[in-house]
Amino acid sequence: MAPAIAAAPVVLAISAGGLLAGLPHGAIDHALTGRLLRLPLWQATAAYAAVAVLAYVALLAGGGLALAVVVLVSVAHFGWGESQTQRALTGWIPGRIVSMAMTIAGTGALLLPLARSGDQFRGIATAVSPWLADLIVATPLRMAVASVWTLAALITVTAAQRAHQRQIAVDVALVALLGATAPPMMAFAIWFGGWHAIRHMARLLTVEPRCAALLAAGQPRRAAAALVRQATWPSLTAATFLAVLIIGTVAAPDLDTALAQTLRVLLALTVPHMLIVLCLDRRPTR
Fold it and tell me: Which residue of 8, 62, 207, 237 has the fewest CB atoms within a 10 Å radius of its CB?
């Protein structure tokens, strides 16, 4: 049953499109690394790549435990990005409990597919670690994931309605609809490329110096164009790499093993990105 989710051509095509669409949101990470660490661009790029390589080695050596840790950190990264975006868009700063609920509610496109279709990931998880596969398909875990997300969503929607922040309630509903109905891989890819990445790019306009200056001068279109120019060549390079990775995965004789390997590569590449975003978020002013 495991390959069924991965083998459907439509699911694969849409998933690949979503991943490709999401690439630009991390395309200037190396430049941001240079500014944060005050390093020349080539040194910043080398440092960024080194962190990704170390993360990949750790995922290989650490097996299921390392994979589970990086996945959990990734979920936290996605959820935190959603809550930060909501704050930026609305100016609403809720209390600690509601903020935590907003963070969890923002991960519906990840947690809901896992909760309802965890058994479809057994083959991929088994290729990494048998115990991880048993954990993912366990009914108690899937029920717990669904329950925690539902509670967080209810808290978020209720608080948002009381604070007259209807857009936040709509966002949660849209994420819930996607996570509850689309095939798991496709749900994440659509959300990643059409939601998370776009919002992150909007946030980058406020932290990249030239874009931020243009934005402050009341020239949002020029700010967006400047960001696009910076991200174009890195995005094309990353897209070529991802396309080769996807083609190699689909053509592999053992799809589950290939998908597990691809998952390690993609997760390793997200580690330095998550560190950069964390550093940006921890700055006192943006």
Answer: 237
